[in-house]
Amino acid sequence: MTIRELSRIALLLAALLPGPARAAVKVVTTTEGLASIAREVGGADAEVQHLSRGVQDPHFVDANPTLALKLRAADLLVDVGLELEVGWLPPLVNQSRNPDIQPGGRRRLTAASAVAVLDVPTGPVDRSMGDLHPGGNPHFLTDPRRAALVAKAIGARLGELDPAHAAGYAERAAAFGKRLEAALARWQAELAPYKGKRLFSQHKTLSYLHEWTGLVDGGELEPRPGTPPPPAHLARLVEVAKRDGVKVIVVESYYDTRSGEQVARLTGARLVSIPGDVGGDPAAKSYESYVDLVVRRILDALRASP
Ligand SMILES: [Zn+2]
Description:
Elements: H1 3-16, E1 25-29, H2 32-42, E2 46-50, H3 65-72, E3 76-79, H4 89-96, E4 108-110, H5 144-161, H6 166-191, E5 198-201, H7 207-213, E6 216-220, H8 231-244, E7 248-252, H9 258-267, E8 270-274, H10 287-303
Parallel strand pairs: 1-2, 1-3, 3-4, 5-6, 5-7, 7-8
The chain binds zinc ion.
Zinc ion binds near residues 59, 133, 139 and 225.
């Protein structure tokens, strides 16, 4: 048989075969960071959408009814948890009329359940004071090790919902974890000379980053998570900066920078803007490029502030 005949047979066979055997699993995540991780794990077997965007403060997202439509068709909803989305996700889930994505449902995965949580309050929590982290700190995707655990949990759940592709989900989650492990070693090596350096942040977003980098929380511009910085608190931080040698103030791109600028002006510290999530900066297109950009921006500021 000639090559030409063979390729004709191949074309005929391809035309006879049915199209895609089935639709990909529809995954909806609350944040862009979770979507990026779900895409890594889902590969071609999952179609992933997200409800909020990385340029938005994830605590405060407009519960637009069009988002409920995305949830209606979801085979799996992945949320962060720890009440990060409490202000906007529950009404959307209720409007979606998709009973399986309710908390505890088989099509609901709360990522926080896969990681060890930091900053769990020990005393009473006063939500009337605007406290946004009553169950502990929900900003754990600033830690690639926890991101790998979330990937593994997503892989396991997708495997339960779509057993025919379970091995693929598990393999891709493991491969993603391996890649993050290698990247983590690089990032840690670059940051190693700055271990013990103190950073200010706008909101308590960096607890998990401090854990793997050895950088230290110098204080937050918000006196408590979710409370705008009053002048007396900022004046106290100026004293803290002088006392502890805080030279860098980290602010996510979705925050107003005025408080940070004020403290920077009074202390000579550098104000660093970082993406709050994947998609929070045009260069932060994937989970890895997001963490890489955060590390890069903080490193630049630390190097410039001896
Ligand atoms: Zn928060």
